[in-house]
Specification:
Blueprint (H helix, E strand, L loop, with lengths): L6 E2 L2 E4 L3 H12 L4 E4 L15 E2 L10 H18 L4 E3 L2 E5 L7 H11 L5 E3 L1 H7 L9 E5 L2 E3 L1 H14 L3 E3 L2 E9 L2 E9 L5 E5 L2 E4 L5 H6 L22
Parallel strand pairs: 1-13, 2-3, 2-14, 3-10
Antiparallel strand pairs: 4-9, 5-9, 6-8, 7-8, 11-12, 12-13
Helix pairs in contact: 1-5
Length: 241
């Protein structure tokens, strides 16, 4: 078994998706020595398999006001300022069908406004003009400031900026265990899939940003985190309306 000399840093980030890349950039900009490890390539997990919707937070406004406020804050302040080249403001529609309660529309709009999200009731005919593929039977519609985000470009841009500020990005490096001193985690052991080499990486802070696979990383620290994948359905069209 081939081994390489160990490396030290201020923080090790496990996972090369949107979360890991964003953390790497933030830490690197603060002057920290950063190592990010990803077992495959960047954005090959959930980041590269999502709908690309930039939530306004409207869908959470009634049931989870805190998440709604967080969404619109990230949407308006951070994403559109920091990564404008990765997002497109398209707006979104929440529609009411005949079997739905139209009076709920007022509750929805009020909850959006309380969370700082603009929500405008529009005529069903206007909704049909905005989105010709909408269910023609709709009896109400509310326009909200949703958008789209390119997760690949966003992740790559964060990775590049992190690297320009000194971060070390190790793709094709799988975590095979955590290095511990008593109860404290102080590093990781990784295997290079391309060379087969084993290397120890040391840092006082280890961030688990491995997504659904994070529960397996946590087990190396004798932690049990219950995570379950959720399946959704997406409708993909070959044109833009």
């Amino acid at each position: 078994m081939k081994t390489r000399d160990s490396q030290s840093s201020d923080v090790i980030i496990i996972g090369g998706g949107a979360t890991g890349a964003g953390i790497a950039r933030d830490c690197a900009l603060r002057g920290l020595r950063v190592i990010l490890v990803e077992r495959h390539d960047i954005a090959t997990g959930a980041t590269g398999r999502n709908h690309g919707l930039l939530h306004s937070g409207a869908r959470y406004a009634v049931t989870d006001a805190e998440s709604a406020r967080e969404c619109i804050s990230e949407n308006q302040i951070r994403m559109k300022r920091i990564a404008r080249h990765c997002v497109e403001p398209t707006n979104g529609l929440f529609i009411t069908l005949p079997e739905d309660d139209l009076s709920f529309q007022a509750t929805f709009i009020r909850a959006c406004e309380e969370a700082g999200i603009s929500a405008e009731a529009i005529d069903p005919q206007q909704a049909r003009i905005i989105e010709p593929a909408v269910n023609p039977a709709l009896i109400g519609a509310v326009k909200v400031p949703d958008g789209t985000v390119d997760p690949f470009r966003l992740t790559a841009a964060n990775m590049l900026d992190a690297k320009e500020h000194g971060a070390v990005i190790l793709t094709a490096h799988e975590v095979t265990g955590l290095i511990r001193e008593g109860a404290a985690v102080c590093g990781v052991r990784v295997r290079n899939h391309l060379t087969g080499e084993i290397q120890a990486l040391h840092a006082p802070v280890v961030v688990n940003a491995a997504g659904i696979w994070g529960q397996h990383i946590a087990e190396y620290a004798d932690l049990r985190i219950r995570m379950f994948p959720a399946k959704g359905s997406l409708l993909i069209m070959d044109h833009r309306t």
